[in-house]
ABC transporter ATP-binding protein (Novosphingobium aureum), 285 residues
Amino acid sequence: MDQHHATSAQFEDGDDFPIRVDGLRNAFGEHVIHEDLSLRVRRGEVLGVVGGSGTGKSVLMRSIIGLQQPAAGEIEVLGRDMMADGDGEEIDIRSRWGVLFQGGALFSTLTVGENVEVPLKQFYPEISDELRREIARFKVRLSGLPDEAAFKYPSELSGGMKKRAGLARALALDPELLFLDEPTAGLDPIGAAAFDSLTRELKETLGLTVFLITHDLDTLYAICDRVAVLADKKVIAIGTIPELLALDHPWIQEYFNGPRGRAALAAKGDPEVDSNLGDTTGAGA
Ligand SMILES: Nc1ncnc2c1ncn2[C@@H]1O[C@H](COP(=O)(O)OP(=O)(O)OP(=O)(O)O)[C@@H](O)[C@H]1O
């Protein structure tokens, strides 16, 4: 399969794409981060986003959720044109996604429960204090934290618990889309695997579409339906891991066929990927 083939698979007619990006350009002064970048995220998938450090994964996520004003391009999220001038509707759309930023971005002076209450207060001020607290407690539990974690401050939590607390806040408004920026960074392998399982389980039970930036190969193999590769200022390929492995791109081959990629594959033990890898090892690198 050539590169174009894998990339074009995202533009099938009739698919439902809650996130569409076309011709995106981002630059900071002379420093061009994205040029003519296009991407489609399918409803209900976990899309892993990978790329070398500084390739603009976080800037892409920030552009999609309206925290970064692109220089050019089109971005549509849940049918809304994110490049259009503000008309108040953008406030509504922000309640339909949840974001887990790198490091969790929790308010340190609020307890976990109070952190989860923040978006509820912001978007549904009419909810009673009691109901809001109850919803927050439910989200804390949904994120795999014990009930008492709701009363703790972020500084009292381990790294893994902080991530779960950030996840609880991201889920506060029952979002359709979940954005995760390196959710397993800094976690030990057991904690990372547990977080991956939780993400997959939540995606399946809540019907979420997940945009997941990661450097974690285990996460890619464990929970991603497709993977988008950022390089050369664009998404150079998108597809399942076997589809990507069939491409002859040096970065992709190095990434998936390097020692870490092979270890992650061995840990996953996926016969489909195994056989594909066998086909491409000699030809690819
Ligand atoms: N607000 C900003 N002002 C200037 N430059 C920025 C800004 N935000 C990001 N950049 C630059 O844009 C580039 C892409 O940054 P980004 O954080 O998106 O990379 P990334 O792919 O997420 O990297 P990493 O994997 O290391 O987290 C980097 O060179 C970064 O320095």
Notes: The chain has two domains: 3-96+175-279, 108-166. DSSP finds twelve helices and ten strands in the chain. The beta strands are 19-28, 31-41, 46-51, 72-77, 80-81, 97-100, 177-181, 209-213, 226-231, 234-239.
